[in-house]
UniProtKB/TrEMBL annotation, chain A:
UniProt xrefs under Gene3D superfamilies: Metal-dependent hydrolases (3.20.20.140), Urease, subunit C, domain 1 (2.30.40.10)
Species classification: Eukaryota, Metazoa, Chordata, Craniata, Vertebrata
Keywords recorded for this protein, A-Z: Cytoplasm
Compartments, as annotated in UniProt: Cytoplasm
Superkingdom field: Eukaryota
Segments of skewed composition (Polar residues): 512-521
Protein name: Dihydropyrimidinase-related protein 4-like
Automatic annotation (TrEMBL), chain B:
Compositional bias per record (Polar residues), positions renumbered to this chain: 516-525, 535-544
UniProt cross-references to Gene3D superfamilies, sorted A to Z: Metal-dependent hydrolases, Urease, subunit C, domain 1
Xref: SUPFAM superfamilies: Composite domain of metallo-dependent hydrolases, Metallo-dependent hydrolases
Predominant cellular place of this UniProt entry's protein: cytoplasm
Cellular component terms per the entry's GO annotation: cytosol; plasma membrane bounded cell projection
Annotated GO biological process: cell differentiation; nervous system development
Amidohydrolase-related domain boundaries: 65-454
Region (Disordered): 514-573
Molecular function terms, GO-annotated: hydrolase activity, acting on carbon-nitrogen (but not peptide) bonds, in cyclic amides
Sequence similarity: Belongs to the metallo-dependent hydrolases superfamily. Hydantoinase/dihydropyrimidinase family.
The protein's name in its UniProt record: Dihydropyrimidinase-related protein 2
Length: 574, 573
């Protein structure tokens, strides 16, 4: 099944470059220096560099030089009802490079009946042939089956995957139950991976969809009406609760509404290891367009969770992104042509979901957050590449301009503006959700793997030149705290004498009641309840006989972990 | 099967003329001094210098407070659990209630799986009619969900005087319902005009945590609280608030045990949700530190779900929220098991039968924690111990108020009387009292139930079987006025558009034919129908193309703005 992919020849032509006169911007500081690049990596940084002759010089004077963007959420391959997204790995990564993004992390969505590994191989094959920039892969857990844990382990240990996404929505299709989520989270913590969630309550959504269709509402406005933001917020809250119990790092994809972002912010204040990912669409536009009289336009905005119909949302999300309550930006780029969207012309639930944003992401963040003074250029680098690289263990290979890092570099024009339009974009779809939007800040030169792919407005990409970037488990940025808490949060029982009083007789039917509903999802093959492994009652351990103060109630058995913000009930941290 | 009520009432209420003189009458809105004359179990006159028949028994209140008898909205007397029955049955339980100043209880009917709601309801009626010493009513718990349940709920509301149903978010594989089922139950409840109650804890996670804790070798009662951290309670409250908002259904959270759960309720109220929270005697009066007691039997007595919080500041916090109105009603969740019964779980905490005492102590604990400390006044005390409950469950003004025509359920309250709660002196059948040694100020001196003195000079004079079943009508005004207004406003309309006539991509399969349905119990609700009206075909349009068609807008939403405001109003329906 696994096909051999030829090793990529990185040393194409002209792989020696010097960038002169720019201000280098990392997430921690900015400074003036030249950068010398060879063989796709940064070899020297400094002034008056000694470089071979005949090196091509790129003039960055007056611009800033930043690490290429990392788009942590794309769906360039995932099929919907047998239709593949209009922008595939080639068109998608091409558009990404145009916008200053030099790496993407795509979601592998195994179709039902396909194993995770088979889907992973299929994605790698396609990306290998088509991708124009480096890429990595998240794996979505769409189905619960025997051998899932083994597959996860294999993917983490041998295949360079350290993040998995779980769906709390798409009932009867992808949705997992709370029990399954708990088990997945526990498995991921053990493997050192990051748990991602698509946070929406699928049960409620389905009921609301039914209700709206019954009311005769069939247009795209039905999509947002059936996905109210409370439903997103509820799911985020639930995911936070489970992650806390499982002591697993949590990553919420597509933060689309104010209350959902608030839940994340609050959980962080309580000490949770949690990250929130707003996307280009959520930062750049809102849900009022679902009411557009133009069906094709309204349908172009259909995605889940939907854009909020509260028009103050984009501003709020970019504020939270600026203050650090949200950390990473993505595009969730997943586009369908109007003819594809029109599958749902009489029923909004059939409209394939997804919006564009891969090309516009960097400019939108600059325009909304930096141009408005909410964040500085260093924060900009943090939210567009560095944080993502740290969380997903790509740092410092990606997300930083430093000697030894990959030569994925963008020269960014901070002063001029550009207008988005379906007429000029590099996508294959007819509608651009940011149509007519004027954004300050755009890339003038994009360097990927040490090669210039965008210069003077001209794209020069090579299909299939993108490499798969494996990601190791236990990213330090995420797991240092998790590990410390794992050590601290040991729970112990109370050593007591045996209870030797009378015991009432019971009909033994503890849980013999007919198999009942597992909440929200198919039944899971996880470990069955085992008997207690150790029994402290029988261990004979006692403190040293009866204590003088035995009658006083106390909690002798808890160690206290105090994460920032404090909490009232600590024992559950593990 | 059901006993004739009329007969009972007549035979037990002889010589029932009573006069209380010189009382300070305390209602939830005001206090005033007047005499009260009662006859036939009803309050007939209130005022000064009343003209009453001669030879009436007179109680001299000497300016002491007389208030409406307490309503304990949550009891589980005689609840069956794996073949055992709760130690305090309807006789013991209501007797203890009366001793503490509570003159009405609302008990929970828990149909065991496989039992119909109606037969369970009749079973409870039979038990209570033969044993209860005070008036009672019944909540019915929905422990499974199928087509028949819907019809039974309708029958219970229309013919049997039930207006509240409880669903469980916990007890996986026993009572727990899925979110879809809860959505459907809430929709049915809203249509029937009843109140949705939830037992709020995330059952899925609890099962996982129990397994983990047992694997660690922790088998004692401390495992109970370790496996049910308060986050799980708060999460479930948050989820039920979300579902209730979507279905526009009034929500009532039973047993608010933790600060974080109470905060979720308070926040939801600020956003305009019609939600009520019920802290119980145990959570107001003690905390979860006792789960770590070295005495197994004592530790096991505290086992209840959601558990008492190990955070010792919880009782004080909940009392504050109760005083400021963020929480509204108090129950006891009285459900006791004796030590031998508890000991079924001596080697595995998950087998310990759950429930604590509190029906007898409820009024005194609240007085001591809230009124003595100055958090609330006597009127608020009446509100949280009886009036609010009567309003929510549509018993008002028959219960929960001292007024002409109301039931003669009264308590003569002594705010100075100090008592030490102890298993030695309580009126319960169990060996332990979770409030053992707690000294409380404020106690009933005289309790009058159905116009008869049942407590006087510390002596109880109760009559087994004298309690009447009190029916409750649907659509309580206090709850449903807002719900109705919102249903009217929250109408959703689609956007009238021309027909989309561009190309349409071919697709192979139907959207949801992939996997078998998620829940074993299939839901009885309506299958997804084709849309009934199709606005595309209606030919309706505003008046041709509008000049501002290119500007995005939402022309189809009316805005409802409940207190606190919300961003997304369209979901209120």
């Amino acid at each position: 099944m696994v096909q051999k992919r030829p090793v990529k020849n990185v040393s194409h032509y002209s792989d020696k470059l010097i960038i002169k006169g720019g201000k280098i911007v990392n997430d921690d500081q900015s400074f003036y220096a030249d950068i010398y690049i060879e063989d796709g990596t940064i070899k020297q940084i400094g002034e008056n560099l000694i470089v071979p002759t005949g090196v091509k010089t790129v003039d960055a004077y007056g611009h800033i030089v930043i690490p290429g963007g990392i788009d942590v959420n794309t769906c360039l391959q995932a099929p919907h009802l047998g239709m593949t997204p209009a922008d595939d790995f080639y068109h998608g990564t091409r558009a990404a490079l145009t916008g200053g993004t030099t790496m993407i992390i795509d979601h592998v969505v195994p179709e039902l009946g396909t194993s995770l590994l088979a889907a992973y191989d299929q994605w790698r094959d396609t990306a290998h042939k088509r991708s124009c920039c480096d890429y990595s892969l998240h794996i979505d857990i769409t189905r619960w089956h025997d051998g899932l844990f083994e597959e996860l382990e294999y993917l983490v240990k041998d295949k360079g995957v350290n993040s998995f996404l779980i769906f709390m929505a798409y009932k009867d299709k992808y949705q997992s139950s709370d029990t399954q989520i708990y088990e997945m989270f526990s498995a991921m913590r053990e493997l050192g991976a990051i748990a991602q969630v698509h946070a929406e309550n699928g049960d409620i959504i389905e009921e609301e969809q039914k209700k709206l269709l019954d009311l005769g509402i069939t247009g795209p406005e039905g999509h947002v009406l059936s996905h109210p933001e409370e439903v997103e917020t509820e799911a985020v809250y639930r995911a936070v609760t489970i992650a806390k119990q499982a002591n697993c790092p949590l990553y919420v994809t597509k933060v689309m509404s104010k209350p959902a972002a608030d839940v994340i912010a609050k959980a962080r204040k309580k000490g949770m290891v949690i990250y929130g990912e707003p996307i280009a669409a959520g930062l750049g536009t809102d849900g009022s367009h679902y009411w557009s009289k133009n069906w094709a336009k309204a349908a172009a905005f259909v995605m889940s969770p939907p854009l909020s119909s509260d028009t103050s949302t984009p501003d709020y999300l970019s504020s939270l992104l600026s203050c650090g309550d949200l950390q990473v930006t993505a595009s969730a780029h997943c586009t369908f042509t109007t003819a594809q969207k029109a599958v749902g012309k009489d029923n909004f639930t059939l409209i394939p979901e997804g919006t564009n944003g891969i090309e516009e992401r960097m400019s939108i963040v600059w325009d909304k957050a930096v141009a408005t003074g909410k964040m500085d250029e260093n924060d900009f680098v943090a939210v567009t590449s560095t944080n993502a690289a740290k969380i997903f263990n790509l740092y410092p290979r990606k997300g930083r301009i430093a000697v030894g890092s990959d030569a994925d570099i963008v020269i960014w024009n901070t002063k001029e503006t550009k207008t988005f339009s379906a007429k000029t974009h590099n996508l294959t779809v007819e509608v651009n959700i940011f149509e007519g939007m004027e954004c300050r800040g755009f890339p003038v030169v994009v360097i990927s793997q040490g090669r210039i792919v965008l210069e003077d407005g001209k794209l020069n990409v090579t299909e299939g030149s993108g490499r798969f970037i494996p990601r190791k488990a236990y990213p330090d940025f995420v797991y240092k705290r998790i590990k410390a808490r794992g050590r601290m949060a040991d729970v112990r029982g109370v050593p007591r004498g045996n209870y030797d009083g009378p015991v009432h007789d019971v009909i033994s039917m503890t849980k013999s009641v007919p198999a009942t509903p597992t909440t929200r999802g198919p039944s899971c093959p996880g470990k069955t309840p085992g008997g207690p492994a150790r029994n402290l009652h029988q261990s004979g351990f006692t403190l040293s006989g009866t204590q003088m103060d035995d009658h006083i109630a106390r909690r002798t058995t808890q160690r206290i972990v105090a994460p920032p913000g404090g909490r009232s009930n600590i024992t559950s941290l593990s | 099967l059901v006993l004739s009520q009329g007969e009972q009432t007549i035979c037990t209420c002889t010589s029932d003329r009573l006069l209380i003189k010189g009382a300070k009458i305390v209602n939830d809105d005001q206090s005033f001094c007047a005499d009260i004359y009662m006859e036939d179990g009803l309050i007939k006159q209130i005022g000064e210098n009343l003209i009453v028949p001669g030879g009436v028994k007179t109680i001299d209140a000497h300016g002491r407070m007389v208030m409406p008898g307490g309503i304990d909205v949550h009891t589980r007397f005689q609840m069956p659990d794996r073949g055992m029955t709760a130690a305090d049955d309807f006789y013991q339980g209501t007797r203890a209630a009366l001793a503490g100043g509570t003159t009405m209880i609302i008990d929970h009917v828990v149909p065991e799986p496989g039992m119909t709601l109606i037969s369970a309801f009749n079973q409870w009626r039979e038990w209570a009619d033969s044993k209860a010493c005070c008036d009672y009513s019944l909540h019915v718990d929905i422990t499974e969900w199928h087509k028949g349940v819907l019809e039974e709920m309708e029958a219970l509301v229309k013919d049997h005087g039930v207006n509240s149903f409880l669903v469980y978010l916990a007890y996986k594989d026993v009572f727990q319902l899925t979110d879809s089922q809860i959505y459907e139950v809430f929709s049915v409840i809203r249509d029937l005009g009843a109140i949705a109650q939830v037992h709020a804890e995330n059952g899925d996670i609890i099962v996982e945590e129990q397994r983990r804790i047992l694997e660690l070798g922790i088998t004692g009662p401390e495992g109970h609280v370790l496996s049910r951290p308060e986050e799980l309670e708060a999460e479930a409250v948050n989820r039920s608030v979300t579902v209730a908002n979507q279905t526009n259904c009034p929500l009532y959270i039973t047993k608010v045990m933790s600060k974080s759960a109470a905060d979720v309720i308070a926040q939801a109220r600020k956003k305009g949700t019609v939600v009520y929270g019920e802290p119980i005697t145990a959570s107001l009066g003690t905390d979860g530190s006792h789960y770590w007691s070295k005495n197994w039997a004592k530790a096991a007595t505290y086992v209840t779900s959601p558990p008492l919080s190990p955070d010792p500041t919880t009782p004080d916090y909940l009392n504050s929220l109760l005083s400021c109105g963020d929480l509204q009603v108090t129950g006891s969740a009285h459900c006791t098991f004796n030590t031998a019964q508890r000991a079924v779980g001596k080697d595995d905490f998950t087998l310990i039968p759950e429930g604590t005492n509190g029906t007898e102590e409820r009024m005194s604990i609240i007085w001591d924690k809230c009124v003595v400390t100055g958090k609330m006044d006597e009127n608020q005390f009446v509100a949280v111990t009886s009036t609010n409950a009567a309003k929510i469950f549509n018993l008002y003004p028959r219960k929960g108020r001292i007024a002409v025509g109301s039931d003669a359920d009264l308590v003569l309250w002594d705010p100075e009387l100090t008592k030490i709660i102890s298993a030695k002196s309580h009126n319960l059948a169990v060996e332990y009292n979770i409030f053992e040694g707690t000294e409380v100020r404020g106690s009933p001196l005289v309790v009058i139930s159905q116009g008869k003195i049942v407590l006087e000079d510390g002596n109880l004079h109760t009559t087994e079987g004298s309690g009447r079943y009190v029916t409750r009508k649907p659509f309580p005004d206090y709850v449903y006025k807002r719900i109705k207004a919102r249903s009217r406003l929250a109408e959703l309309r689609g956007v009238p558009r021309g027909l989309y006539d561009g190309p349409v991509c071919e697709v192979s399969v139907t959207p949801k034919a992939m996997t078998p349905a998620s829940s074993a119990k299939t839901s009885p609700a309506k299958q997804p129908d084709q849309p009934v009206r199709n606005l595309h075909q209606s030919g309706f349009s505003l008046s041709g193309a509008q000049i501002d068609d290119n500007i995005p807008r939402r022309n189809t939403q009316r805005i409802v703005a409940p207190p606190g405001g919300r961003t997304n109003i369209t979901s209120l329906g």
